[in-house]
Amino acid sequence: xxxxxxxxxxxxxxxxxxxxxxxxxxxxxxxxxxxxxxxxxxxxxxxxxxxxxxxxxxxxxxxxxxxxxxxxxxxxxxxxxxxxxxxxxxxxxxxxxxxxxxxxxxxxxxxxxxxxxxxxxxxxxxxxxxxxxxxxxxxxxxxxxxxxxxxxxxxxxxxxxxxxxxxxxxxxxxxxxxxxxxxxxxxxxxxxxxxxxxxxxxxxxxxxxxxxxxxxxxxxxxxxxxxxxxxxxxxxxxxxxxxxxxxxxxxxxxxxxxxxxxxxxxxxxxxxxxxxxxxxxxxxxxxxxxxxxxxxxxxxxxxxxxxxxxxxxxxxxxxxxxxxxxxxxxxxxxxxxxxxxxxxxxxxxxxxxxxxxxxxxxxxxxxxxxxxxxxxxxxxxxxxxxxxxxxxxxxxxxxxxxxxxxxxxxxxxxxxxxxxxxxxxxxxxxxxxxxxxxxxxxxxxxxxxxxxxxxxxxxxxxxxxxxxxxxxxxxxxxxxxxxxxxxxxxxxxxxxxxxxxxxxxxxxxxxxxxxxxxxxxxxxxxxxxxxxxxxxxxxxxxxxxxxxxxxxxxxxxxxxxxxxxxxxxxxxxxxxxxxxxxxxxxxxxxxxxxxxxxxxxxxxxxxxxxxxxxxxxxxxxxxxxxxxxxxxxxxxxxxxxxxxxxxxxxxxxxxxxxxxxxxxxxxxxxxxxxxxxxxxxxxxxxxxxxxxxxxxxxxxxxxxxxxx
Length: 708
Description:
By secondary structure, the protein is mainly α. It has helices at 3-24, 27-53, 78-104, 113-129, 133-152, 157-185, 190-195, 202-220, 228-235, 241-263, 269-292, 296-323, 327-362, 373-376, 378-391, 398-411, 419-451, 458-461, 468-486, 488-503, 508-511, 527-535, 568-591, 617-627, 629-632, 659-682, 687-707, and strands spanning 59-66, 70-76, 552-555, 562-566, 635-644, 647-656. It has a two-stranded antiparallel ribbon with strand order 1-2. The chain has a two-stranded antiparallel ribbon with strand order 3-4. Strands 5-6 form a two-stranded antiparallel sheet. A hairpin with a 2-residue loop joins strand 5 (635-644) and strand 6.
């Protein structure tokens, strides 16, 4: 066994040792094994995925052969390696966090739950490395069941059943899509399907696309089948929600990308338009609901929909560019999509950890009840603030880079010739711009109402800081948010290794020009172009940093060589310098020469400010609710009439009904109930009627046989 096989095997060995230890050790020790085994196995997975990502050939490992199905094998190409890398980055701190949360209240968790958590990590890896249809679907089904057990471990079963039921419907759609591809290729192997992926008819492309897109889209949080997410996320224990939101959500997006770029080659621009618009609508609806919700976990659940929509929009743009022959633009859009997927995994895992820490310290998730937590939980407040700035796309954090790249990729639509496609890009761009603005409002509200101001309830006044292990987990993710934000010229070439084999073009060449003199490909750039950027500082630190440069840009043609450019690396250095300079100037010219005098602050004539007099989360979100009321209709009035003794009593009740519930879930429920009533009548009839049904069936069968 070579070193790479040993490294890959060690991941599973560590997880399996953890599972066995959890099942046989006392509960207190088994919980510690969850954190140790989960973090160590994920670290080994990170190393393995990084090795695969930076080598030229995929990793292949044959397992065994099953009669009628074929040989089961593992294939880790660059796309799988990237998703494994993202999984490892989120799973390392999430495992430590889960172990810490369970250890605080072990009586609330079943003994098998930590083992199921590690089993979920194993199943996620198997989904990403499966190399044929049977192995993939088996791993996918096992993974879905483990997620169900973790969601239901919170003792609230109904949301888990809803999630499992809609997930099974998606699995059936995925099954049909993959079977159609396998039938076309004559094999269940992904390699064989890929070899025949360019020979699909236009009609079959559309069928496979719809089945796979909406089948995987259920897991990925896309409309119209994402109504399960707020329900499931809100009842999932805080110990497990970081891994579910930060990792398993990505599997749906992985499936969409794998099927529609790798297993089949899409030549239909219309498919890309459907993906583009679906993603943009998902993003705007997700952030609108996130902005008006009061429950912190539900806010983050809707935000997960928003970010899934943003990623999907960028992927749709990539498909449109690719099917139109613009490979460089397609590569840039796909790099932006995967960059945002990585960023979302990191800052969403961090924010769900912060939400869990707040809930554990206060016993509440209501933003209207919070306030003043920064004084009680300063470190948690700092890490959550970094997560908030990241998800709000504020520089120099990671969300800014990926959202900037996505918006600039959409602007490249001017190169396309179709007016209809350009209009679709305009609509998607406008919706994403509005989404970005509302995201800032949403998370300013979330942080301000929870950590700033004064405590509104007694539990908030008694809150205490989290444990050191929890702080370490959040600190790791917070630093990762910063690193991903200030080092985009390192991240883009890494992600490009997954994109270039799919698109056939490098995004690195277009996005990260080699401005540094120590890079071998610098001579490929026009000398005037390089000189102009060196004059404005693009070559600063060229002898210190082993990179192509620290500037990210969209390059154009000869007449317009630069379309957009930015550098969060230089921006970060300047921000630190200016903040430090400001602090020194304030101390020298203001604080050093003046005495600090403390006086009562002006209170507007109010002797004492009570909590009920402060601004609430509901009040903060009211302008958004009012403006978008015609779209969301968050409050629906149900009217019931009761007749008692010749008098009519009318009762009106207002309740919150989600948009997707009204247009998708409730119509399906009503149709199913009506169909059930019709079928119930058929099963409660006379014996002669049943005999008539049998005779009619025989006659129909005879007619079909004779006609054939």
